Automatic annotation (TrEMBL):
One Pfam family linked to the record: MRJP
Protein name per UniProt: Protein yellow
Taxonomic source organism: Eumeta variegata (Bagworm moth)
Compartments reported by the entry: Secreted
Transmembrane segments: none
Keywords carried by this UniProt record: Secreted, Signal
Length: 415
């Protein structure tokens, strides 16, 4: 199925998805959902052998990152606990007419997921971001067993995969001097501007050591800097989700890009354990000679999001509306970037206390029309071993951004 038809199919058959939540004229749909993740092993014998040997422990697999390109979505499954046979997978979108629980197809192939490797393959992929030229940039932490006994098997790395040919173009290790003791390099954002993606930079967030790493594709250079706005807020480090109280002090995490205008665009960013959004012009952070003496260029965007206002990932659509995961409110928030960042201008694009428990990653694809893709994964329950394998725990969801904001303060027609 061509991707144009696919978009049409997503729009017209969304009524067929089992989980189709409508709140007035807002909607979010579940495309895939799993009680437990399974993989498409080469054979039933290998599947059984992996289960028997502990190479595959379904309860230890959690999906984290999401991306979409044409007729596929990509899902990462970091190796936080033992028994994760592959860490990056693809799922076909064609022919999907109802909510299903397909096995993950390791990507680009099983050969890339042999954890005994010499670091030429994947170790533990966190997140991916696809540029508009069809290259997927993959962030690999290089670390396994983070929730058990962490072992840094390989340096954190950035891999570029050509999605037309499914081949790896290049893999860069993040230089040692930019990875600090206890760094948690968790999120990535590609900033590409011209039609050929020549001026491409990648922004990489270190949530535990409060740093931003910039990668410049033209010469493979990296640089790193820190800023006090990358730190968590103490009171917002105290979370309560469906009765579970936990403390996370995660700093810089969510990043999204505003409109490109006169050679520049803002980077919006926030710490995860925070209710505050900041911005900096990308011309500042793309110039390594400026980052360290531009402290005043990193600015508060506006008002706070209030209690329970913690946000993981965010992205801005073609109409200039930011969508963001409200991880303590089972919701996707929205903000029209043309309006001031005031609490009264922050809307809710989707809310569901069953399917939207801990929306973790969020991306907006490059298709026409665009869709917003969300993965929900109950991460705090996973961390504290409270996942119930009899329930649906993990979901790939999508929403039509134009429809989702209709009638909310995020709609451009609403002033
Ligand atoms: C890593 O291992 C692979 C497969 O065994 C081999 O093809 C490759 O040359 C090795 N790379 C390095 C840098 O040793
Ligand atoms: C953290 O949250 C719990 C549960 O809401 C609350 O009882 C506790 O007082 C909070 N701690 C602080 C320091 O605010
Ligand atoms: C900024 O300053 C820090 C601390 O001195 C240093 O580690 C870092 O490399 C500097 N970054 C750049 C891009 O100059």
């Amino acid at each position: 199925m061509c991707s144009g038809c696919l978009a049409l199919a997503l729009a017209t058959i969304s009524d067929c998805y089992e989980e189709n939540y409508q709140t007035g004229d807002k909607s979010i749909n579940t495309l895939f959902r799993w009680k437990q993740i399974d993989y498409d092993f080469p054979s039933e014998e290998e599947h059984r052998a992996a289960l028997e040997s502990g190479a595959f422990i379904p309860l230890n697999v959690i999906p984290l990152g999401i991306e979409r390109w044409k007729d596929r979505v990509f899902v990462s499954t970091p190796r936080w606990k033992s028994g994760v046979p592959a860490t990056l997978s693809a799922l076909a979108l064609d022919g999907i007419t109802t909510t299903s629980s397909p096995p993950l197809q390791p990507y680009p192939s099983w050969d890339w997921h042999n954890s005994d490797s010499n670091c030429s393959t994947f170790t533990s992929v966190f997140r991916m971001n696809i540029d508009h030229c069809g290259t997927m940039w993959v962030l690999d932490s290089g670390q396994v067993d983070a929730f058990e006994t962490p072992r840094q098997l390989c340096p954190p790395s950035l891999t570029a995969i050509d999605l037309t040919t499914d081949t790896v173009i290049v893999k860069y290790n993040i230089p040692e001097q930019f990875v600090l003791q206890n760094s948690l390099i968790t999120n990535i954002l590609v900033d590409s501007r011209d039609a050929q993606c020549r001026d491409l930079h990648v922004y990489i967030a270190d949530a535990w050591r409060f740093g931003l790493i910039v990668f410049r594709a033209s010469d493979g250079a990296f640089w790193r800097f820190s800023h006090y706005t990358f730190y968590p807020e103490p009171l917002l480090s105290n979370y309560t989700l469906h009765g579970l109280n936990y403390q996370w002090s995660d700093g810089l995490f969510g990043m999204s890009l505003g409109k490109y205008h006169q050679g520049d665009r803002p980077l919006y960013y926030h710490a995860m354990s925070s209710s505050t959004e900041f911005f900096v012009m990308t011309s500042v952070i793309r110039d390594p000679s400026r980052v360290n003496d531009s402290v005043g260029e990193f600015k508060l965007l506006g008002e706070h999001r209030g209690p329970d206002g913690q946000v993981s990932a965010a992205a801005v659509d073609r109409n200039g509306v930011m969508f963001y995961n409200l991880i303590s409110r089972d919701s996707i928030g929205c903000w029209n970037t043309r309006k001031p960042y005031l609490e009264s201008n922050l809307g809710v694009a989707a809310h569901d206390d069953r399917s939207l428990v801990f929306p973790n990653d969020l991306r907006i694809d490059h298709d026409v029309p665009q869709y917003v893709w969300v993965i929900t994964n109950r991460l705090p329950m996973f961390q504290f071993n409270l996942i119930n394998p009899e329930e649906y725990n993990y979901r790939v969801m999508f929403l039509d951004p134009a429809k989702a904001v209709q009638g909310t303060v995020c709609d451009s027609d609403t002033i």
